[in-house]
Amino acid sequence: MIYIAVCDDDKVVCSEIEDALLEYSKRHCMTISVDVFYSGESLLEHMDKGHNFDLLYLDIEMGSVNGVEVGRQLRRVYKNYSIEIVYVSANDGYDRQLFEVQPLHFIAKPIDASAVIQDLELAIERGQRLGGFFKYKKGYDTYKVPINEIIYFESLNREIKMVTTKGEELFYSSLSKVTLNVSKYQFLQIHRSYLINYNHASILRYSEVVMSNGTVLPISKSKREEFRNLQINEE
Fold first, then answer.
1. First to last CA, the chain
2. What residues have CB less than 8 Å from 132, skipping those under 6 apart?
3. DSSP per residue, 65-125
4. What number is the average pLDDT over the span 29-45?
5. How many CA within 13 A on the CB side of residue 231?
6. For residue 72, what are the CA distances in angstroms to 78, 153, 223?
7. Residue-wise pLDDT tens digits, 47-95
8. Entry pTM
9. Residue 156, SS3 per DSSP
10. How far is 218 from 234, CA to CA, in rounded Å?
11. By the 8 A CB rule, do 185 and 195 touch?
12. Which residue in 127, 167, 148, 134 sits closest to 81, CA to CA?
């Protein structure tokens, strides 16, 4: 089951997105659930009750709580980094405001059903790729944590500090071993002491990166060009 939310104060737009998703699910024998909300407030109230979604199509220009603010609430207050957000708007001038929310994509109005489906397929692909676990040992016990909850790893002599959306953990290992274990995911070594989850990088600068929890980490001189090239390729 894939849980999807559509949030837009335009009921016609909501119907267009919902119809595209349901038609796709029928043609591909896919089980999905689509909940529709006509305001940012109603969506947040629903999530306050413990509900969650895998994918959210979110209008930017809504009433008192617009889509940018809803995205910020999800990331900063709810600490929800697993939900994929696709912004929907007739205005494409929100690039800088949206970066900190780390959206999956942007769809322009009027709605193109093929664009809706492309983002659904991308979210599914990312979910499969990012939906694994990182395993580590403490004594005789083995623990595992969802990949998408890990913000970064820090090397502390013979120990590794793992910072997640839920706290911190220390275990014995090396950064090189950790890197091998997460190599198939989007982790980047920005410094000899830091390995970051690129999906949790909120602000990218020349010599440092601000992570989703607000921590500022340095980018070593030897890694700056590689990191800069990655940013250029995404533009």
1. 33
2. 146, 147, 184, 185
3. S-HHHHHHIIIIIS---SSEEEEEES----HHHHHTT--SEEEESSP-HHHHHHHHHHHHH
4. 91
5. 14
6. 9, 24, 29
7. 988 888 889 999 998 888 889 999 999 988 888 887 899 999 887 666 5
8. 0.59
9. strand
10. 21
11. no
12. 148
* Pairwise pLDDT comparison (183 vs 232), residue with the higher score: 183
Structure tokens at 235: 């533009």
Contacts of 159 (CB under 8 A, 6+ apart): 170, 171, 172, 173
At residue 148, the pLDDT reads 85
Of 72-76, 114-118, 137-141, 227-231, highest mean pLDDT: 114-118
In degrees, rounded to 5, the angle at the alpha carbon of residue 149 between the alpha carbons of residues 76 and 176 is: 130
How long, in residues, is the chain?
A: 235
Q: Report the pLDDT averaged over residues 205-230.
A: 87
Name residues whose C-beta falls within 8 Å of residue 234's C-beta, 6 or more positions apart in sequence. none
